[in-house]
Specification:
Blueprint: H1 10-40, H2 45-61, H3 63-99, H4 104-135, H5 143-170, H6 178-203, H7 221-244, H8 250-267, H9 274-297, H10 303-311, E1 312-313, E2 315-316, E3 319-320, H11 329-350, H12 357-379, E4 388-389, H13 390-418, H14 424-446, E5 466-467, E6 470-471, H15 475-503
Parallel strand pairs: 1-4
Antiparallel strand pairs: 2-3, 5-6
Helix pairs in contact: 1-2, 1-4, 1-5, 1-6, 2-4, 2-8, 2-14, 3-4, 3-6, 3-14, 4-7, 4-14, 5-6, 5-11, 5-13, 8-14, 9-12, 9-13, 9-14, 9-15, 11-13, 12-13, 12-15
Length: 508
């Protein structure tokens, strides 16, 4: 084999750079979002957690629409450009929203519009850029695993700097400064979009020099109306509870319903061979397990940010670190540890000891469980007014980072390898559907965080949240919820990993 074949194509680094700035935009906004909701728009922690879960859940649901329109009409390139433009507009609307906090009602309406545009834009962008990474390589090329690890490092470089920049500008203690964090996220999205537009024709080709991600055919009026209708429906779903003062969560019904219906529609397609059905079934089974991982992991932007803000000692000398900066710990860990993990998997491969994807993902679940065990021990003997050392939270994020490296890049690579070409983007969208359910569930779980005993609540009866009949009265009980369900999921996946490996028919 020639030396050139050992190198990754230049297109990978263009996709790396494009995704890095898009993730800067997304994670920068996410770092300050729940703080903006609770401090600037004065939502309760429970309502803010629900909004957070709905937003991040829908962000991972709309890739189904984007994947479908890409496969049938637009192709990857046009989908990415459409998505990038919409996300830049959405972040700018969040900046305008943050500039209007003197009028909370107007600011809230602008927020719903901004979130809607961000959600739709992400649906076009996210599944298609991930799919293009796989298209740069020939089927069976083992470099694809390391390619997705490199790509994943791009995601995390953006995710590392964004809380520092957007949080540094927005999370200052002055609620009017949140807008500058949103504006920085807008600028990041524009950089992502421009770099892709300028260099896509030069670098996005396969091994034969053929352009990848080209349009399939023109978008017809019927599907254009589907896009417009989806935008209106998402805006209605996001603002429904606020507009009608209702406790009904329509977004939960949509996301969890799609999680059942979409896999049934795909697996019953008559064009699938028995081997293809077997491999696709592995995708769906593992997608179920990653819900448990991500719903625990994604507390980073929700309950763990609230925990960092109120119950973590953040002073370093006279300076107090912004709570949003803790969200840079995980991506920094990825940047440092990803090459080590890639080297480690390579060593195991050479010795024929590398575990199959399901086993790696079981280890990921076990590590996220261990992370919550650490933080539970930190708060076990403290009261609701006490603050714990930031080092406990840093330890949790380190363990979660190691779990993520066992699960997330492995999952993306696995979908790329197991999915039939004609269903590639749709199945990548289905994989993100599991993330949608996980993020929505994360918001539901975040709402279980017990209220702190602060001066403004003194003398008032505290209403504690409950789950399946058990009342959660302190942080130790709250973190135990995550320990139990992630631990059980890890144990089940360890047991099932051998069966799933057989169903993959030679793909690891």
């Amino acid at each position: 084999m020639s030396t050139s074949n050992e190198k990754h194509p230049k297109g990978l680094y263009l996709l790396f750079f494009t995704e890095m700035w898009e993730r800067f935009s997304y994670y920068g906004m996410r770092a300050i979002f729940i703080l903006f909701l609770t401090k600037a728009l004065v939502f309760s922690e429970k309502d803010a957690s629900t909004i957070y879960g709905s937003y991040t859940g829908l962000v991972y649901l709309t890739p189904l629409l984007g994947g479908y329109l890409c496969d049938k009409f637009l192709g990857n390139r046009r989908s990415i450009i459409i998505g990038g433009v919409m996300m830049a507009i959405g972040q700018f609307l969040m900046f305008v929203c943050g500039s209007m906090i003197g009028n909370v009602e107007l600011a809230t309406t602008l927020m719903w519009i901004g979130l809607t545009v961000l959600i739709i834009g992400n649906g076009f962008f996210k599944p298609n850029i991930s799919t293009m990474v796989g298209q740069l390589y020939t089927p069976g090329d083992r470099k694809i695993d390391s390619a997705f690890t490199i790509f994943y490092m791009g995601i995390n470089i953006g995710a590392f700097f964004s809380p520092l920049v957007c949080g540094g500008l927005g999370d200052t203690g002055n609620i009017s400064d949140f807008r500058w964090g949103f504006l920085a996220a807008c600028v990041g999205m524009i950089i992502s979009l421009l770099s892709f537009q300028i260099y896509k024709n030069k670098y996005l080709t396969n091994n034969e020099g053929e352009a990848i991600g080209m349009p399939v055919k023109k978008l017809d009026m019927k599907n254009l109306l589907i896009i417009i209708g989806t935008i209106l429906v998402i805006f209605f779903l996001l603002s429904f509870k606020n507009m009608f003062k209702s406790d009904i969560d329509l977004i939960s019904y949509l996301i969890y319903g799609a999680l059942v219906i979409v896999p049934l529609v795909i697996i019953t397609d008559k064009s699938l061979t028995s081997q293809e059905k077997s491999r696709i079934s592995v995708i769906f089974i593992l997608a179920f397990f990653v819900i448990f991982f991500w719903s625990a992991f994604e507390q980073a932007g929700a309950s763990l940010t609230l925990f960092a803000d109120k119950q973590t000692e953040r002073h370093i000398g006279a300076w107090e670190m912004p709570a949003s900066w803790f969200q840079s710990v995980n991506p920094l860990g990825i940047i440092i540890l990803a090459p080590i993990f890639a080297y480690f998997w390579g060593i195991l491969y050479k010795r024929k000891l590398e575990p199959a994807s399901p086993m790696k993902m079981a280890w990921g679940l076990a590590l996220v469980c261990l992370g919550y065990f650490v933080i539970a021990m930190a708060v076990k003997d403290t009261d609701s007014t006490a603050k714990v050392s930031m080092y406990w939270l840093l330890a949790l994020y380190l363990l979660h980072t190691m779990g993520e490296l066992c699960l997330s890049p492995i999952g993306l690579s696995m979908v790329s390898k197991l999915a039939p070409i004609r269903f590639a983007s749709l199945l990548m969208g289905t994989w993100f559907l599991a993330n949608a359910a996980a993020n929505k569930f994360a918001g539901t779980l975040s709402a279980l965080i017990p209220p702190t005993n602060e001066p403004e609540t003194a003398g008032k009866a505290i209403e504690y949240p409950s789950i399946i009949g058990f009342q959660i009265t302190n942080l130790y009980e709250f973190f135990m919820v995550f320990i139990i369900y992630s631990g059980v999921a890890a144990a089940l996946l360890f047991v099932l990993s051998g069966v799933l490996r057989k169903m993959m028919h030679g793909i690891r």
